[in-house]
Amino acid sequence: MESPVLLNTTSTIEIIYQDFSLVAVNKPHGLLVHRSPIAADAETFAVQLLRDQLDRKVFPVHRLDRKTAGVLLFALDEAMNSAMQKQFMEGTVKKKYHAIVRGFTEDSGEIDYALKKEDGTVQEAFTSYITLNRAEAPFRTGKHASSRYSLVELNPATGRMHQLRKHMAHIFHPIIGDRPYGCNKQNKYFKEELQMTTMLLHAVELEFVHPLSRELVLIKADYQSEFRRMMELLRFFAED
């Protein structure tokens, strides 16, 4: 179970795309998509906020972890919900994430590493990545006087639970703020010295073919304030 995150949010959520059948929001870090028995401390949910804001029923067509921010897509009726979920299941939706990870990553790479579900089922999982920037900061978290970090673009071809978190940990470049897959020393430093209590993973883009119009839709979400603060602190500058 992830530790609770203090969520500074108003009664509304930022809408970044809307048409007659779909709406997308820029989900803040720390906000659950919907009510969950494993997070009994939560009282506010993206589904609830958007439903109240639009005054109508909404259907989340995919999921983001509680600590992950960025593009979250909803359908406005059951037929569109089924159509979009089908696209996600078939892997035709292109997803792009940005993450700040420990260490200097390679310029680019591919992670082809199967993941095991809680019931023991093994699922194929594939992620490609590109390094956007690297930085070295005077953070002493171990025997060295400084720490290295990379800003990476992650492109998951599959959609397994905690895939990006597990894949980055698998190649020894865990996402900063990730529990339980991350680096305890780094996470402790960021929490105690930098007062950061989230995870530095942001869903930047979703791209898909609209089931009704058949037009290509590209939705982008700006960084949330905490991710941006860490970018500035580490002097990262993302490439367009």
Automatic annotation (TrEMBL):
Cross-referenced PANTHER family:
MITOCHONDRIAL RNA PSEUDOURIDINE SYNTHASE (PTHR21600), TRNA PSEUDOURIDINE SYNTHASE C (PTHR21600:SF56)
Key word tRNA processing present: yes
Origin organism of this chain?
Dyadobacter sediminis
Catalytic activity, EC = 5.4.99.26
A GO molecular function held by the record: RNA binding
What is the protein name for this chain? tRNA pseudouridine synthase C
* One example of a Gene Ontology biological process annotation: tRNA processing
Q: Name one Pfam family in it.
A: PseudoU_synth_2
